[in-house]
């Protein structure tokens, strides 16, 4: 699959596994990140995948970053909007800053990432958009009103993009990971993490590669009729 792929937040955690899986599938991959230069440099050393720094919450920065990726690698065919953050607090203690930071990165960041790429996908009559949502966007989560709102919003984004893009050969899908062993989850206090694992029928956290394989399938030519869908990968942690 000789395509150009952009993975936001692609230098660490789930995004790094996605970048590697797409490279293994034959794509030329650009991995963007926010500010952790050390992790990005290490990632490039280990994988040979180029990294680019910009803040997905900033539309002009995203546009410029995407333009520099395309100048280096050619037009982007595949975009994986993976960059995300948490700023947890129970609702009565959540500050407008916590709310806005998460909305700006996780939700507006998806707009900022896909919007500059979209006209080229339409023109070339091929595109793959994957947004990394979350089980907590499907079920809500104590302390994550901001995060759950963004991740539920992602599902609305892909369902709408799917309808707009289908006749141009563009698919847009979401992956909803359950709890995956990355720095984001390992930062949770051990006691809380143990109780999370106890609630997962598989009895373990997921691995980033298990999410990456879902993405690699969704962006493949074989997945052309899967559009507007959500893949839940959560170890049978049902929520209805
Ligand atoms: P990590 O914290 O391990 O990595 C986050 C990545 O996103 C980093 O590369 C980071 O860059 C980048 N990033 C964060 N903010 C911005 C920004 N404003 N602009 C550009 N890049 C940014 O996260 P995970 O791998 O755990 O999560 C990846 C995605 O998966 C997120 O959307 C998350 O919500 C979702 N998810 C994760 C789950 C989990 O259990 N881990 C479960 C369900 C969903 P830098 O390295 O510079 O900080």
UniProtKB/TrEMBL annotation:
What InterPro entries does the record tag this protein with?
A: Acetoacetyl-CoA_reductase, KR_dom, NAD(P)-bd_dom_sf, Sc_DH/Rdtase_CS, SDR, SDR_fam
Acetylation as UniProt keyword: no
Instruction: State the UniProt keywords alphabetically.
Output: Oxidoreductase
One GO biological process this protein is involved in is: monocarboxylic acid metabolic process
Coiled-coil ranges from the UniProt annotation: none
Outline the extent of the Ketoreductase domain: 3-178
* A GO molecular-function annotation: acetoacetyl-CoA reductase activity
Q: Name one GO cellular component term.
A: cytoplasm
Q: Which residues cross the membrane?
A: none
**Does this entry carry the keyword Transmembrane?**
no
SUPFAM superfamilies recorded: NAD(P)-binding Rossmann-fold domains (SSF51735)
**Pfam families assigned to the protein according to its UniProt record, in alphabetical order:** adh_short_C2
| Top-level taxon of the source organism | Bacteria
Q: Which family does it belong to?
A: Belongs to the short-chain dehydrogenases/reductases (SDR) family.
Protein name as catalogued: Beta-ketoacyl-ACP reductase
Organism, scientific name:
Pararhodobacter marinus
């Amino acid at each position: 699959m000789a395509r150009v792929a952009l993975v936001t937040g692609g230098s660490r955690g789930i995004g790094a596994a996605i970048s590697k899986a797409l490279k293994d599938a034959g794509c030329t991959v650009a991995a963007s990140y926010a500010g952790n230069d050390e992790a990005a440099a290490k990632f490039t050393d280990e994988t040979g995948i180029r990294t680019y720094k910009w803040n997905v919450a900033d539309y002009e920065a995203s546009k410029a970053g995407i333009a520099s990726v395309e100048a280096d690698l050619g037009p982007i065919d595949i975009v994986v909007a993976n960059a995300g953050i948490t700023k947890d607090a129970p609702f009565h203690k959540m500050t407008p800053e916590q709310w806005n930071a998460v909305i700006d990165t996780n939700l507006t960041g998806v707009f900022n990432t896909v919007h500059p790429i979209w006209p080229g996908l339409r023109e070339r009559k091929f595109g793959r958009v994957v947004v990394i949502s979350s089980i907590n966007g499907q079920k809500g989560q104590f302390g994550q009103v901001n995060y759950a709102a963004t991740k539920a919003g992602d599902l609305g984004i892909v369902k709408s993009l799917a309808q707009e893009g289908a006749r141009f050969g563009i698919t847009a899908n979401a992956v909803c990971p359950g709890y995956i062993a990355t720095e984001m989850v390992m930062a949770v206090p051990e006691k809380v993490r143990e109780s999370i694992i106890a609630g997962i029928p598989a009895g373990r956290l997921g691995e980033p590669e298990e999410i990456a394989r879902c993405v690699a399938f969704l962006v493949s030519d074989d997945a052309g009729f899967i559009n507007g869908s959500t893949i839940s990968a959560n170890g049978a942690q049902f929520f209805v």
